[in-house]
Amino acid sequence: MKRNKLFIGLVVALSFVCFVVTAQNKPTLNSKEQSMIRIAAVTAKGDLSKLKTELNGGLDAGLTINQIKESLIHVYAYAGFPRSIRGLQTFMTVLDERKAKGINDVMGTGASIIKDERSKYDRGKAILDSLLGTPQNGPRTGYSAFAPEIEIFLKEHLFADIFERDVLNYAERELVTISVLSSIGGVEPMLQSHLKICLNVGVTPTQLQQFVNIIRSTIGKKEAKAARKVLSKVDKEVASREYQVGWTFQRSNIGH
């Protein structure tokens, strides 16, 4: 009986390891996702000349006009209206130039009408809970307790008004978010939080490593080094959690 329990425990542990390895070796970021990262990063930096190149590349890669517009709109939540608006103005110029050359880009699907009758705060909280993978029901702490107004703005505006729009899915919005945060720098705690959210919404560790490489080639070594340092912390935390879960499964099946 003891041997059977040990055997079952080993099978469960090995299955868990195989699951983790498989998750880490999913396909890399596709060309559209890579373009979205570069567009968001360059917009956040304010390099409009380079942005024109990346916008053309994004359209050529198959991103729709609405997907790029939505990405540029999303940027403002993390880099401000000036960067976002300059990005949109640059995009307008790019579309005019392409149209003059006879290139007719695909508009794509717009945002759906929101039919959820809950308050914006409740909708935003539900979306944030989904992104984090756990409900946030405890008392306010940190900046939320210090300035409750901004916590309300985040729930009602960022997560309801913006994240709720379905032109981009959660994974795409998070790729845009970490692109902006990596590019502007000095916001490592936020970057760490959103890298974790990326993993929660289906972005793999392999894809996040590729993301850092894209930041390096698009923005620079300094920004990539800082992003890689934060990602390393996230990887260690995730690896530790996976080990603990795997060991718990093993112990429970061995009967100790």
UniProtKB/TrEMBL annotation:
Keyword terms of this UniProt record: Signal
Residue ranges of every copy of the Carboxymuconolactone decarboxylase-like domain listed in the record: 22-87, 148-231
InterPro entries on file: 4CMD/NDH-1_regulator (IPR052512), AhpD-like (IPR029032), CMD-like (IPR003779)
Segment forming the signal sequence: 1-23
Protein name listed in UniProt: Carboxymuconolactone decarboxylase family protein
Native organism: Niabella ginsengisoli
